[in-house]
# Entry
Amino acid sequence: MKKTIIGLLFLCLCLPSIQAQEDTLRTTRQVMRSTLYGIGHTNLLDTYLSPMEYTGPELRILRENIRNTKYMDSKVYRQSLFQANVSLTENKAGTGSEFAFLANWNLAYHYSFYKSGKWQLQAGPNLDLNGGMIYNMRNSNNPVNAKAYANLGASGMAIYHFKIKKHPFMLRYQLNVPLLGVMFSPEYGQPYYEMSIAKDFGKNIRFTSLHNQPSVRQFITLDFPIRNTTLRVGYVCDIQQAKVNHLKSHMWSHSFLIGFVKHFQIINPYK
# Structure
């Protein structure tokens, strides 16, 4: 009986320390989610389909999720960014049109290496996945070219907080540069049915780097409050280009976007 009582007393004394340990294991994550819609202008070139450039309007959607992690004293932020754009273009002579679609998913981990006053600087690696197609409405042979490529790259972000008449504003600039990747590309004049019959894609999967895929994505956004919501306006400069298998291609896009931002907290136990 005495041993039981002593055991219960010991358990009661240990409960506060156990609870304190559990509280330290519970972490609060700051989460920011945004959805933006935009319109812009694009310039297309794909010498597999045509030697001419095609230009026209573009529609774009961008969804972003950023949260801090447990790594390095919660100074590492995880960014998941998905965007998709569609465009309908025509050549300078007005004799042909192209329809293009490209979807991109980017996963980045940014380390906040500088934070002082109104400024915050972050940098880190990112994974970049892309897929889409270009359809040339004039071609009877080889009218479509698929786009599929993946990259490992570097990403950097600069954030500036300021106030106007006591209202908080946040200005952000982000730069993503692919450094090493793989890309699918047909050879010049190679029909897709030949690839499907031969089932040999060795010549169609190429390694890429800065020498044959000098691309960059830049984002500028401004957040500001309107009543109980946060509005975001932004600009995207998306320069995708490559030269593989004796083919040149580029998709240069400039878009202006607008949407809303949500900020909230989540509690992750034991993470």
